[in-house]
């Protein structure tokens, strides 16, 4: 089969589809990934085909947008970019036929456009529970949702039936795109196009988010992909020497795409001074890190989490699902500073599970971070709980089940709306 994968976003969005693409290629399928040009080399290194889109400077410009890491403005900026890129993605799909199956996250709107225009089956992919809206267990997209969760079920269903803000962002441009391509536009992107009727793939385990009665009916829930391109790669001699030279360090990262993390790293450095602990500060943009690092603190531009985290004492991060799942796999306690998107919901789940703590960005200050880290490093329950979930992740499900489910959806007839 000819299968197209349409990731949209940063490494945490692209790497899981690379993992799936590699598995599908090993079964004899031709896999093409359509995504940002930033990931072209990584994709080709995996033996997959790549259609690189855009320019590196365009992606970097998006990262400079101060809204991208704000609680309410971040999702707005993301969907503005998603609908702006939809036509480019759709053109790439049409320019590389044939296509038997498309797999895409909800943000890759061109996946659904291609389904409706070309009749290609589509599987919607959710890497985290946050996009899976449920009245039974509403994701924590905003701190106010904590009280919302306690309301009666009928009230939650009523509120979730109201117009969704995503529609105000997406629908004007989407209607024009549909008309241009001879496709019947949905009444609501959120209600009608969010999950493909052909199938939905949840790439997180049921112990992290249990299935709910109002989840999509045609769906498969799997586990974390745990892809960080670390296979076969060793740590640099300098980094290995640092890890061997003392006690396990605390690892800090604000996300691979975060260019606005100077305050995060300033707080990290001051907290390590107060605790007298060693630390690794992981960032693609070292200029964000204070110049006067205390002894035992180093800056690392990149190293696979699968190699770093088993040797860390704790992880302090932004709450991205890829980073979070790697910490689970290593059995490492987590301290999360959730900013936007799925991060508040992920942080809330970590706290409820007893595998870590969270601090809101406005309160992410040396005093609070030092106190939280002292708890994570001294109270055994955090590490014991984290290691329990590491044990669950160590039991790998049979990927044959996953791949057969994906393959079966290429044979389903597609029912499209009449323009």
Structure notes:
With 419 residues, the protein is of the alpha/beta class. Strands 3-2-1-4-5-6-7 form a seven-stranded parallel β-sheet, sandwiched between helices. The chain has a six-stranded parallel β-sheet with strand order 10-9-8-11-12-13, sandwiched between helices. The protein is globular. The mean pLDDT is 91.
Order of helices and strands: EHEHEHHEHEHHHHEEHEHEEHEHEHEHHH
Proportion of residues in β-strands: 5-15%
Judging from the principal axes of the Cα atoms, what is the shape?
globular
Strand order of the largest sheet: 3-2-1-4-5-6-7
Structural class: alpha/beta
Q: What's the number of helices?
A: 17
Number of strands: 13
Low-confidence stretches: none
Q: What distance lies between the first and last C-alpha atoms, to the nearest angstrom?
A: 29 Å
Taking the sheet with the most strands, its summary is: 7 strands, parallel
Mean pLDDT: 91
Indicate the percent of residues in helices: 40-55%
Radius of gyration: 21 Å
Topology:
Elements (H helix, E strand, L loop, with lengths): L1 E4 L5 H16 L3 E7 L3 H6 L3 E5 L2 H9 L8 H22 L6 E5 L4 H9 L3 E5 L18 H4 L4 H8 L4 H16 L8 H5 L6 E3 L16 E3 L15 H8 L5 E4 L8 H14 L3 E4 L14 E4 L4 H4 L5 E4 L3 H10 L3 E3 L6 H11 L2 E3 L7 H13 L1 H15 L4 H10 L11
Parallel strand pairs: 1-2, 1-4, 2-3, 4-5, 5-6, 6-7, 8-9, 8-11, 9-10, 11-12, 12-13
């Amino acid at each position: 089969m000819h299968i197209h994968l349409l990731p949209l976003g940063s490494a945490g969005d692209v790497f899981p589809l690379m993992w799936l693409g590699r598995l599908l290629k090993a079964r004899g399928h031709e896999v093409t990934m359509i995504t940002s040009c930033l990931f072209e080399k990584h994709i080709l290194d995996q033996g997959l085909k790549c259609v690189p889109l855009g320019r590196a400077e365009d992606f970097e410009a998006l990262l400079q947008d101060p809204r991208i890491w704000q609680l309410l403005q971040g999702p707005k900026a993301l969907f503005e970019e998603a609908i702006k890129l939809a036509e480019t993605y759709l053109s790439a799909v049409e320019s590389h036929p044939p296509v038997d199956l498309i797999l895409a996250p909800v943000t890759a709107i061109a996946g659904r456009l291609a389904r409706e225009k070309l009749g290609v089956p589509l599987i919607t992919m959710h890497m985290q529970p946050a996009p899976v809206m449920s009245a039974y267990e509403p994701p924590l997209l905003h701190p106010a949702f904590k009280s919302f969760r306690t309301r009666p079920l009928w009230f939650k269903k009523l509120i979730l039936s109201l117009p969704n803000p995503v529609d105000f962002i997406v629908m004007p441009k989407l209607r024009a795109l549909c008309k241009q391509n001879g496709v019947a536009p949905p009444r609501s992107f959120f209600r009608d196009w969010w999950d493909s009727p052909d199938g939905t793939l949840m790439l997180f385990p049921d112990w992290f988010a249990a299935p709910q009665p109002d989840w999509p009916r045609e769906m498969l829930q799997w586990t974390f992909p745990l892809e960080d391109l670390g296979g076969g790669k060793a740590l640099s001699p300098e980094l290995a020497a640092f890890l061997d030279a003392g006690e396990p360090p605390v690892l800090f990262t604000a996300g691979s795409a975060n260019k606005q993390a100077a305050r995060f790293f300033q707080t990290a450095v001051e907290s390590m001074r107060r605790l007298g602990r060693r630390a690794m500060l992981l960032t693609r943009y070292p200029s964000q890190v204070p110049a006067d690092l205390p002894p035992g603190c180093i800056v690392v531009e990149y190293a696979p989490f699968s190699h770093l985290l088993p040797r860390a004492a704790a992880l302090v991060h932004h709450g991205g699902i890829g980073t979070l799942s790697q910490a689970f796999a290593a059995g490492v306690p987590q301290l999360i500073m959730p900013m936007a998107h799925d991060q508040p919901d992920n942080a809330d789940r970590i706290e409820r599970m007893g595998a870590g703590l969270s601090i809101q960005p406005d309160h992410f200050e040396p005093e609070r971070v030092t106190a939280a880290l002292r708890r994570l490093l001294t109270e055994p329950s955090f590490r014991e709980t984290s290691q329990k979930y590491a044990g669950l992740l160590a039991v790998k499900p049979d990927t044959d089940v996953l791949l057969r489910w994906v393959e079966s959806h290429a044979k389903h007839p597609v029912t499209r709306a009449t323009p």
